[in-house]
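Review box. Two proteins, two foldings.
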Amino acid sequence: MQDHQQIWEIYTAAWKTETASEKQALFEQSLALNCEYHDPLIRTKGYDELETYMLEFHLQVPGGHFMTTHFYSHTNKSITSWEMRNGEDVKIGDGMSYGEYNELGKLISMTGFYEVPPVE
């Protein structure tokens, strides 16, 4: 079993990569096949739906990625504070995420919390 923070950082790296094949390779290392992702805007299940959401994120925020600022874990659960950064590595937001891991140490559920801008 791998360290939860190491798994989390592999998963986080998938948000930064720009191609589907790069994302898939990182998913295979860090996520269970039937993983679920939730945030205030969407719910996904499995690699394909999460990959589509990540690729859409890159259309909205070219070069966008996340930097972990704090990570805590125990009993196959983790909580993480992070910064969202643009392609120039400038902080454009922050939030927290909750993760759950299976017996092999792979993520089965990721839930992001952040402030959603008001719709104008």
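Next protein.
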Amino acid sequence: MSGRKTKEDILQKKEKGEKIIMLTAYDYPLGSLVDQAGVDIVLVGDSLANVVLGLERTKDVGMAEMIHHAKAVNRAVKQAMLVGDMPYEAYQENIEASVANAGRFIEEAGCQAVKLEWFDQCLSVAKKIVQAGIPVMGHVGLTPQTADRLGGLKVQGKDAQSAQQILVNAKALEAAGCFCVVLECIPTELAQMITQELSIPTIGIGAGVHCDGQVLVTHDLLGYVELFQPKFTKKYAHLDGVILTALKEYCREVKDGRFPDDDHSYHINKEQLKTVKARSL
């Protein structure tokens, strides 16, 4: 953990007007690459459910899986802040266990903070975790874990009443001690207003350019999996095609007997081979 960015570093970025960069990672190889790219925060996101485990909802991933993958990413990350995404069961299904579960991300998985999505008891949970000495990142707007209560995975805050409530929730999370707030799938104008009114940083995902920082699911920007692609996702690569081409070529070479060739094989000294053959007679 030595040398990693801290919550103080993230707070200072807002003060200096420097953009905060956050990306997701779920295993050692991707965690290492994302860290080497120079991001400020690596999030072990509950999007693990969709892009790695093949589950339909982020709500379906549990603590066992999140801790397991966070441990792997922890081994890779050297300079970025590492944040663990609290799964639904860890704090919404079992509020009493929320502080202990947050502690597991710190003690077992090596994270430096946890992220909570907004829900009815969010403020009391956030306060308890902060009081336990664990930095908390909030999350308002579209909250995928409870998207079924919001009408599905769609933009939030498009009318005055819901926009005002998102602003109120963001301010409440700051008052509860959160060091940062994710704004997901809300109008750019609302995100700009929230960013201006909060003293803590905002990190947008589908919330426009005026947030203090940005986050995307790394698999989405790499074009690594063909899942639902929301409007805010920009593909910077198309790795799925590259990987599939390589895999098909491997299959063809094995089928045709072209792999492994001599360059990819080992050999024994001819005299040693004669000895082996003689002893086998």
